[in-house]
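quick one, 154 residues, struct below
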Amino acid sequence: MNQIIIEENNFDRARKLINENKEKKIIFSSDDDEINRKILEKEKINMLLLNQSGRKDFQKQRNSGFNQVLAKLAKKNEVLIGINFDEIIKSEEREKAKILARVMQNIEICKKNKVKMKFITKNQKRNIHDLKSLGLVLGMPTWMTSDFAMPEKI
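---
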């Protein structure tokens, strides 16, 4: 089954692209959290890819772009949550620490709501055992890491 990544910040264009590619596995990504929510509510996608770089944290809370409302929608519609692995690898030290903290926050939300997560890579090939280990260190339960095959390559 072919897959396509749709990166769009306009809801109407995103909806059109999703409808044109219904036969493919759809990975959706947007920098706008409201569009992510609308897509989860109204469209049939396979995975929501959350980008963590370039976000500003709130004063007393991390801004990871994911919350309990999105987790419940993802669970209801059987949508996986994607972690952009290339973003973690390519970021600098301080930014990497912030990204990992946001990913850990998302893992906790996914654990509570029984939503599956998966690492996504664009061009780097990684050992599956390394990714499982990283997932466990970040707080993923074993039921989440046991489904890891090779990371999704886009």
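The CA atoms of residues 13 and 60 lie 35 Å apart.
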